[in-house]
Specification:
The complex is a heterotrimer of chains A (225), B (46) and C (310). With 225 residues, chain A is mainly alpha-helical. Chain A has nine helices and three strands; from the N terminus they run ααααααβααββα. Chain B is mainly alpha-helical. Helix content of chain B is 83%, strand content 0%. Chain C has 310 residues and is an alpha/beta fold. Helices cover 50% and strands 17% of the residues of chain C. In chain C, strands 1-3-2-4-5-6-7 form a seven-stranded mixed beta barrel. The N and C termini of chain C lie far apart (50 Å). Classes of the chains: A mainly alpha (225), B mainly alpha (46), C alpha/beta (310). Chains in contact: A-B, A-C, B-C. At the A-C interface, helix 9 of A face helix 10 of C.
Chain lengths: 225, 46, 310
């Protein structure tokens, strides 16, 4: 939630700028905007910028690679970039760092426990110290990820990871998960209500039974006297 | 609302909150202990 | 928020009239501010299994003590010597003077201490301390907090008391709410329980307190939800069960001896046995209920946050 609040203003700023650039003169400015957005240290969400209509004008021009870069940063990872390096422009050091940060978020989406070996392979890092420095300085301090570094088991336990931009096909899964959660919560509430009713009924029955027993004891005492 | 979608996605990724054998073992042990205490209390009441 | 206003003239008049001097039951109620309560409970909890002590500031309004604030005292051995707060007189005087300079005009109206795990009542030493306080510092009352039972019960275990004068015979008090007393304290409880009476406790908070507590809740609700008395209070629970076992053994021995002894007082003895066993049964039910509550919260949390989305 904090990361979303932090980048909300930035997203607004970039979206407004993108909306103001259109036509042939706007295309190089849009490309520069994309480079600036993908290099910005505090911006990790790009779907709002992607959905600006003027960005579609980049398609088919000499700046279409900027659109591909934006899509890469919205949905892709460092490995995807490496396998398509021929089709994409050279990234700046700031962009490389950001893409690696986003790759950590993607990895955290699937697993809560990330082994160091997997992380070193995904991020092209040669040793554990460098990996830990990256995770602490670039990920945890940036607020996109919270977790524990377990040096004994050589893994990173993720407690929280910021959300990345979603593709349309991912929405179905999310809706299904939330429906399941909703129905479980509803069922739980119903069963709690039923248990409360049961407890009340049992308590009434017990009081009634106790009263009956006391009355019987009194009757017995009177009859014995 | 892309921001909301990202937040929801981040939240759903955090769940299940705990998923490990050790937690299950500890949880079931607590469960058993409480059931045992309930059993003993029932005997005491009787 | 009007309760926070300190009426110097009314307070001076009350101190001159001293209506409590003629009526041992004069004071009936205590109103504690949210701030004072929080400070006292946090202080008590910070002591762990060690008894802590502090002092409360406030005023009297008719038959009610109004506690505005509380501060801790740097003393030890609150349950092992009468008037342990004597060690901190200089501290109390300095604190009170500094308060008055800062514009807090309230006087000290009572002392609080903790009974970690063994309930809210006054021991023999507490009764002596409170009698001394009432002799020299009246109006004064004693407050006892049990931080351990607070955690396991889920509500603040607190009791406010005033002692009777030595030469006063109290009338038969209505039976107060039952509380479990550990076996090693039961004698101390029983001997002195008629030397004091309990005051009704109510709480109040200012509009600013409401706002601040709301903010605190927003910040710490996750920690509150995550906590579990089963995990946090395991030692206390073990102690309760062990104490219960000892009480049952003692009851069993007493029953056996009594039955072998005289049969003349059979009906009287049977009544005592029954009440002793009834107390044991009540204690065991209480322990179980607390355990079950703790487990219920764990099961619900597991269903909501683990099982559904596994």
């Amino acid at each position: 939630m904090d990361i979303e609040q932090k980048q909300a203003e930035l997203i607004d700023h970039f979206v407004k700028q993108a909306l103001s650039f259109h036509g042939e003169k706007g295309i190089p400015l849009l490309a520069a905007l994309v480079a600036e957005a993908t290099s910005h240290p505090s911006l990790f969400a790009f779907s709002e910028i992607l959905s600006v209509p003027s960005l579609a004008e980049l398609e088919g021009t000499s700046y279409s690679s900027s659109l591909e870069v934006l899509r890469l940063f919205a949905y892709g990872t460092w490995n995807v970039y490496k396998s398509n390096v021929g089709c994409l422009p050279m990234l700046l050091p700031d962009q490389i760092r950001k893409l690696k940060q986003l790759s950590v978020l993607t990895l955290a989406e699937t697993n809560k426990i990330l082994p160091y070996d997997q992380l070193m392979q995904e991020l092209d890092v040669s040793n554990v110290r460098e990996l830990e420095d990256f995770l602490i300085n670039e990920c945890m301090y940036a607020g996109i990820v919270r977790g524990k570094l377990d040096q004994l088991r050589r893994c990173f336990e993720v407690q929280f990871a910021a959300g990345r931009d979603l593709r349309h096909e991912q929405l179905n899964n999310m809706i299904k998960t939330m429906s399941n959660w909703l129905s479980t919560s509803d069922n739980l509430l119903h069963s709690i209500q039923e248990k409360i009713k049961w407890a009340d009924t049992m308590s009434e029955a017990y009081k009634k039974h106790q009263k009956e027993v006391e009355e019987k004891v009194e009757d017995m005492k009177k009859s014995l006297k | 609302d892309n921001s909301l979608l990202r937040q929801v996605s981040s939240l759903l990724r955090r769940l299940p909150a705990i998923e490990s054998e050790k937690f299950q073992d500890d949880f079931l042990m607590e469960f058993n202990d409480t059931l045992l205490v309930t059993y003993l209390a029932m005997f005491t009441n009787c | 928020d009007a309760i926070y206003f300190y009426d110097e003239a009314a307070n001076t008049k009350a101190l001159q009239d001293k209506p409590w001097a003629s009526d041992p039951h004069y004071f009936r109620r205590v109103r504690i501010s949210a701030l004072a309560l929080l400070k006292m409970v946090v202080h008590a909890r910070s002591g762990g299994t060690i008894e802590i002590m502090g002092v409360m500031q406030g005023k009297t309004v008719g038959d009610t003590f109004v506690v505005m604030d509380a501060f801790a005292l740097p003393v030890e051995g609150t349950e092992t010597r009468v008037n342990a707060q004597a060690d901190a007189y200089e501290y109390m005087v300095d604190y009170s003077q500094a308060n008055k300079q800062a514009g807090r005009l309230e006087n000290v109206v009572g002392w609080y201490h903790s009974h970690p795990g063994y309930g809210c009542w006054l021991s023999g030493i507490d009764v002596s301390t409170q009698m001394l306080n009432q002799q020299f510092q009246d109006p004064f009352f004693a407050l006892v907090i049990d931080p351990t039972r607070t955690v396991s019960a889920g509500k603040v275990e607190i009791g406010a008391f005033r002692t009777y004068p030595l030469d006063y015979t109290p009338p038969d008090e209505p039976v107060s709410e039952y509380q479990t007393i550990p076996l090693n304290k039961i004698e101390d409880f029983g001997v002195h329980c008629h030397h004091y009476y309990a005051l009704d406790i109510a709480y109040f908070k200012s509009s600013l307190d409401c706002h601040l507590l709301g903010l605190l809740w927003n910040k710490y609700w996750v920690n509150t939800l995550s906590a579990s008395p089963l995990v946090g209070n395991g030692d206390y629970m073990l102690g309760q069960i062990s104490d219960l076992a000892e009480k049952m053994e003692q009851a069993e021995n007493q029953i056996v001896q009594a039955r072998w002894g005289s049969s003349l007082m059979a009906s009287q003895q049977k009544k005592e046995d029954n009440s002793q066993l009834a107390k044991i049964a009540t204690d065991s039910s209480k322990i179980t209920v607390e355990q079950v509550h703790g487990l219920m919260s764990q099961v619900i949390k597991d269903s909501l946050f683990n099982s559904a989305l596994r």
